[in-house]
Amino acid sequence: MRIAIIAPPYPLEELPSPPLGVTYVAAAFEAAGAEVKIFDYIVCAYTKENLEKQLEAFRPDVVGATSVTMNFYKAQQILHDVKNYNPEIITMMGGPHVSFTAEDTLRHYPEIDLIVIGEGEDTIAELTPVLKQKNKWQNIRGIAYRSGDEIIITGKRDFITDIDRIPSPSRHLLPISRYRALGFPVSLITGRGCPYSCIFCLGRKMVGSKVRRRNPKLVLDEIETIIGYGFDRINIADDLFTSDKERVKEICAGIKERSLKFVWSAFARVDTVNPEVFDLMAQAGCDSVSFGVETGNPEMLKRIKKGIKLEQVYSAVNMCQQAGMIAHASFIIGLPGETKDTLRESDDFAKSTKAIYGYHFLAPFPGTTVREKIKDYDLEIITDDWNLYDANDAIVKTSALQPKDMHEFGASYYEEMEADWNKIVRKYHEGTADLEDSMRVEGHWRMKLTYQILKSGIIENNGFIEPALFKGSRDKALQELCRRVKEYTNANEKVVYDTIRDFAGRGYLAADISDKGCQWSWS
Predict the structure, then answer these.
(1) Is residue 17 classed as helix, strand or coil in its secondary structure?
(2) Three-class SS of residue 63?
(3) With contact defined as beta carbons under 8 Å apart, do 382 and 409 qualify?
(4) Which long-range contacts (C-beta less than 8 Å, at least 24 apart) are formed by 463-470?
(5) Global model pTM greater than 0.85
(6) How far apart are the two ends of the chain, measured CA to CA in Å?
(7) Mean pLDDT over all residues of the chain?
(8) pLDDT tens digit sequence for 414-441
(9) From CA 413, how far away is CA 422, in angstroms rounded?
(10) Euclidean distance between CA atoms 81 and 49, whole angstroms
(11) How far is the C-alpha of 169 from the C-alpha of 374, rounded, in Å?
(12) Rounded CA gap, 463 and 178, in Å?
């Protein structure tokens, strides 16, 4: 059984890291005995031609894709292209979006044969041996599929109690050098489950209300594996990492005992932290913590069932900064009952915390309480165009605010940030920026350049250097590659040359030199 897993395109603005869900799914199929490949279109260009080349080379029996709401259409289109290439290939999809829209998805998108609902590892273990025997699908809990004109949903599968038996993510199937070049942190989870009831979040519905924690030894083993791939920054993505103090101590102690050298960040709730935990995290290499605050209005905090108090935000931010770490706070525009006054309260409160803060717009994803019980709230959803569910667009309104009002508020914040950034860039061009700001500017340009290189296939299409252009010299071949990248991207020359030379020096780019020429490629 050969199974290809699609990692659908994801925009740079969303800071794409190596996809965790995709690698968990791939690991589950591998554990079930399948031969698995990941077709990654996050850091590789997607075209029908590229897809068909990969399908031709691998000849999978099954192609599966995972998606969140914002890239569902892209994932669906890729499966559509798979079916056009070979209608006999079985197509599957999983992830939070289709888990809560399974019936509607199957009715409207015939290119999708089967949906895995919710936590998928045990479902995959049972499903894999019978994927080519559709008459046996009805016996597998946790899936949805078509039988003629009927949609069959086989019932809810229980959450996995012992998550230590879940196979570790198959990151080895990813294009590692490309992700290292892009430079975003690698996400890792230390547990599953969320006991909280925030109305805008899918957490407890996707992974259950009971917290299931992984053995700290397995977490540390996974960290070692990630470092072994050459990554040096990790993000612990579960919100409840700091809630079990003894376990945090054990993991932090293990990082030091194993002499693991990496930088990391974490998410945390403001009501689950204390100075001791933050000190231990900082000593173990954590440099920043992100808190979901959502609003500066106490009544709205109650309405969205966040379960925190504003004074806890001040305390958590202060403790974080006292430990020597950066504190981030995120806020949502467009929560139920939002008014100009509540937005002003949020802005005043955000500034008063002294944290680095930012906003995103409410996206009422399928499956969230706010969407399912929309009539209970002062809120109206104005579109079901899933492309707009990226938290960068106002897609709701309240009795007091129209989308344009929300946009204006968001725009005022971003204009302020943009003005500050433009000052730094101007100083850089003038030669008056300090070292830290100069590194910020060049780092930003490098990130955008890298993403452009990855997504446009510049190396693949321009990486062959003819013998006459480098005369056997690797350095001259590299210089010619830099020249071509500069010509193609029209990016800052210094950034181009520094970036490409760094990629070659770190081994992300490899040179195959022969008497026929030099072929540069991603390692």
Answers:
(1) coil
(2) strand
(3) no
(4) 463/519, 463/520, 463/521, 464/517, 464/518, 464/519, 464/520, 465/517, 465/518, 465/519, 465/520, 466/517, 467/515, 467/516, 467/517, 467/518, 470/517, 470/518
(5) yes
(6) 27
(7) 95
(8) 999 999 999 999 999 999 999 999 999 9
(9) 14
(10) 10
(11) 36
(12) 15
Sign of CA dihedral 298, 299, 300, 302: positive
Q: Which domains are delineated in the chain?
A: 2-153 (3.40.50.280), 185-430 (3.20.20.70), 435-522 (1.10.10)
Q: At what angle do helices 435-456 and 474-489 cross, to 10 degrees?
A: 90
One-letter-per-residue 3-state SS of 32-49: CCCEEEEEECCCCCCCHH
Cβ burial of 200 (10 Å; 0-12, 13-18, 19+) is buried
Nearest-5° Cα angle at 228, 223 to 232: 70
Nearest to 116 by CA among 142, 137, 96: 142
In this prediction, residues 477-506 reach a mean pLDDT of: 95
- Calculate the dihedral angle through the C-alpha atoms of 180, 184, 188, 192, rounding to the nearest 10 degrees: -140
Contact 19, 7 (CB under 8 A): yes
Work out the number of other CB atoms within 10 angstroms of the CB of residue 126: 16
For residue 137, which phi and psi values (nearest 5 degrees)? Answer: -65, -30
Question: Which residue blocks in 190-309 are alpha helix, DSSP H?
Answer: 203-207, 216-228, 245-257, 275-283, 298-303
CA distance 328 to 266: 10
Pairing label, strands 326-333, 286-294: parallel
With 0-12 / 13-18 / 19 or more C-beta atoms within 10 angstroms meaning exposed / middle / buried, residue 11 is: middle
HSE of 93, CA atoms in CB hemisphere, 13 A:
31
Q: How many CB atoms lie within 10 A of CB 449?
A: 22
26: which 2 tokens?
């791939």
Q: What is the pLDDT of residues 289-320, one digit of tens each?
A: 999 999 999 999 999 999 999 999 999 999 99
Residues in the chain: 523
Q: Which two tokens stand for residue 433?
A: 């920026």
Q: Which of the 8 DSSP states describes residue 19?
A: -
Sign of the dihedral defined by the CA atoms of residues 275, 280, 286, 292, in that order: negative
Q: Which residue has the tokens 């190396």?
A: 459
Other C-beta atoms closer than 10 Å to the C-beta of 199 total 20
CA pair distance 215, 307, nearest whole angstrom: 27
Task: State pLDDT tens for residues 237-289.
Answer: 987 899 899 999 999 999 999 999 999 999 999 999 999 999 999 999 999 99
